[in-house]
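The material for today's practical consists of a large collection of protein records. Read left to right, the backbone structure tokens trace the chain's path through space. An example says more than a description, so a record of this kind follows:
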Amino acid sequence: MEFFEQELVVRVTDETAFQSFLTKYNGVVVNDGALPAPPSSSLKTRVVPDRQWRLVRVKAPMVSLEELAQELAALGMQGDIRIPDQDTANLYALALDYAHTDGVKAELNLALKPQASGSALEHQRSPSVFRQPMNNWWLQAGAGNVIRAWEEFGTSGQGVGIAIIDVGFTPNDPDIINSDPLNGIGARRGVMQYDFAQNDYDVTSDAGGDPDPNGTTWHGHGTAAIAFGAQNNHYGETGVAPDATPMLFRVGRGIGNAMSYYDAGRAVDTAVAWGASVISMSFSANTPGGVGIPGTYLGAALDRAEARGVINVAAMGNSQNGEYYDFARWPWKTYPVPAVWSAVIAVGATNSINTRASYSNYGPVVGIWAPAGESNGADAIRVAPSNKYSSGCYSINFCMTTDETEIFPGTSAAAPFVAGAVALMKQVKPSLTKRDVLNIFSQTARKNTPDGNVNGAGLINVYEAVKLARDYTPPPPPPEVPEPPEICRPVSSC
């Protein structure tokens, strides 16, 4: 588990108590929780009330390493407890002291990590031939079955906002703005974006940003391209929902793009306020169950999003682990959050033969499986080239060279694949809730693959999911069970 030094995420329900907290620990408010205004005054937004969460920088008092280890053991943490240094122990102890106090509740600001490991004309395969979506295994009937959903129902995600919370975006990429560099056609759609690391409306680097634009990764470039990469623009590949409304939210800080728990929570609230219908998160933090419970700012924000009908989708992670499901039995095992939270649909990754990709986490918490390919690149999903690996052609001629794409495997690819699929479903049935989506997945997913792990939740079948969504009627809620009558003991006391 990693977190940002000297930073705590604080929930304030008593302003006087909060001011006392700041005074006691030399605290400075880094962010007061206000959300960025929408990029356009004409944008119809949802009202998101004050969430009471603040990001503060504190000077934590000295604690005994031995006493802290004993306190963690008393809370249920098992095994060898290792604390790397005194400053870490001090901040951790302070967060524990204020975990359940009235007026002010504090938690660590955890560091999240990216989880990467048709007939339209897309990128050039030869000087005179362009590759088509029908050539991509992940879109074909034998895998995700996306092409048939496009062609039979005319779905493309039109009018549905997909928010990608990530790092390393290329917001002017032809696949994001839907331009056609071969024919000199400019942007055909706008991109809503906000950078929570630099607090501006540009998710690329600026003069005061990272020496290497967006740090060391262009991870968000791949996730966005898979969700809503443009179609028929002679460039890159086609996303699952190529006409969806792009929303890009960058939460990476500095070199390496450590992703702030607090910033991710603000990004979720902003996505809801700006009108997103789907939120895709290809990141996770493996946290002990006692720390990773959803009563945190990020967890609360995702609960609010679900309550507004927004579908939250997250990558299951790439640790090849299958024990992520029983909080009660193993409260201090590490769990990949936010995927395991109840407000989120957790997505596992499959390969081209419809078995679990070797890196993907698994287990009963997975809500659906989706194509991504293996990390060796043999059958990995491909996206338009990012600036990181192809900066020359990207900046000069938009990589119009032969077969210019990059591999992008990982549960990071599977999550936006599902987000795109949900956008197609929301296009035909905007009222779908997370419960509805999971019910549709349960009825339409393939559960006859060669892999028993995948057959639990099943491999997504986008065509069948959209087909059922069109005329979907939610089942009635279960009947309420009446309270049993009170029994007096002894009877004479009645």
In short: The mean pLDDT is 82.
